């Protein structure tokens, strides 16, 4: 390629070596002075591609929620407008500059929000089965989360672009793969939720439901049920959220009530929950430990820890490891099969940590979609 | 240029199954999931001893792995 012009240029005294030299010097100057600009240009490109993807995901989840409300929920009128309002609804967290009593305030705000979501879905659907209503709540929450993720990423993208902030753009570009991964997990959750399939997070309730089957159930807190069972001379107070609705219940309130109001003096509280695995850990691995095994915003955890501390009851945890995607999409075989092992661990923990005649509280933590009792 | 935004994932197709277990003899039956199935729901009569079975698990596995 360079030969022909080389020959032509030789005629005016410039050979191909000089051309290469000029080219390299030029290249050096460009990379030296414009490298940052080039990088931010590429970052902008990258982010805008990710942003488009997030927008598609957000729109899809919104559409899925509306379709579910119309087709399965049989909403009497077109829910589109209400859903759009719903997506932009905000929950204002209480101030934390005076932290005393903060958990109570957070609990109050969060409970108000949850009640409002259910009321909203109730108005949209008129009459519907509790399962359909709970699934609609979850679908709307997924759509809200994706909407929020898209908004925040767009904010930093536009801000970085407007202020030409190289560092802002690079940071966003680096975070993008993880943001997309999380958004992807949320979108995938929609498919499992729509069909009412148990999700990976439901492994705790699946395990404890074995103790509850055929026993008399009573409500101990909002969306939370308890049954009394027996295992090797111990009296078990087994609780989980009320399935097969997509509920997580209020295990904190329930445990508090069992200890403080029902006068039960448990010699142990055993909690079974799904836990996020670290990259490299195997799905379905079981970990044992002490402490309150429950995620979320921290309200339930606080209540359980407080009730346990006041009554001086040891807290034991059994965790089934899984990724975020696995936790919110249909339960994988590895997780379901880990349930058998976790059940044996549960029995062993009860045998080791308590004596015959003791009372034990057993809590299956997680979303009970598709898991009754 | 390498992009940090992952492309469309090649999603491995997951098949969802319902496991019905007989409380009397422990016989397990695996069938495809149908909408409305949930854990502890009453299943069909047991093939071995014609007791009432219950759904003990609902799970998904890769289409290729079995
Ligand atoms: Zn049988």
CATH domain topology of the largest domain in chain A = Rossmann fold
The quaternary structure here is: heterodimer
Distance between the termini of chain A: 76 Å
Structural class of chain B: mainly beta
Q: How does the major sheet of chain A shape up?
A: 7 strands, mixed
- Spatial strand order of the main sheet of chain A: 1-2-3-7-4-6-5
End-to-end CA span of chain B: 39 Å
Domains of chain B (count): 1
Globular, elongated, flat, extended or rod-shaped: what is the shape of chain B? elongated
Number of strands of chain A: 7
Bound ligands, named by name, code or SMILES: zinc ion
Strand content of chain B: 35-45%
Summed up, the domain count of chain A is 2
In summary, what is this structure?
With 373 residues, chain A is α/β, with parallel strands linked by helices.
Break the fold down into its secondary structure elements and pairings.
The complex is a heterodimer of chains A (373) and B (66).
Chain A: H1 3-10, H2 16-71, H3 80-87, H4 102-125, H5 130-163, H6 166-195, H7 203-212, E1 217-221, E2 224-231, E3 234-241, H8 251-261, E4 268-276, E5 286-290, H9 299-311, E6 315-322, H10 324-328, H11 333-353, E7 359-364
Parallel strand pairs in A: 3-7, 4-6, 4-7
Antiparallel strand pairs in A: 1-2, 2-3, 5-6
Helix pairs in contact in A: 2-5, 2-6, 4-5, 5-6, 7-11, 8-9
Chain B: E1 14-21, E2 28-32, E3 42-45, E4 52-62
The complex binds zinc ion.
How would you characterize the overall build of this protein?
The complex is a heterodimer of chains A (373) and B (66). Chain A has 373 residues and is of the alpha/beta class. Chain A folds into 2 domains: 44-195, no CATH class; 200-364, 3-Layer(aba) Sandwich (Rossmann fold), CATH 3.40.50.1470. Helix content of chain A is 59%, strand content 13%. Chain A has 11 helices and 7 strands. Chain A has helices spanning 3-10, 16-71, 80-87, 102-125, 130-163, 166-195, 203-212, 251-261, 299-311, 324-328, 333-353, and strands at 217-221, 224-231, 234-241, 268-276, 286-290, 315-322, 359-364. A 7-stranded mixed beta sheet of chain A has the order 1-2-3-7-4-6-5. In chain A, strand 2 (224-231) and strand 3 form a beta hairpin. Chain A is elongated. Chain A starts with a helix and ends in a 9-residue tail after the last strand. The relative contact order of chain A is 0.13. Chain B starts with 13 loop residues before the first strand and ends with a strand. Chain B has 66 residues and is mostly beta strands. Chain B has strands at residues 14-21, 28-32, 42-45, 52-62. Helix content of chain B is 0%, strand content 42%. Chain B has a single domain (14-62), classed as Rubrerythrin, domain 2 (Single Sheet). Chain B is built from no helices and 4 strands. Chain B has a 4-stranded antiparallel beta sheet, with no helix packed on it. At the A-B interface, helix 2, helix 6 and helix 11 of A face strand 4 of B. Bound molecules: zinc ion (ZN). Zinc ion is lined by residues 22, 24-25, 27, 46, 48-49, 51 of chain B.
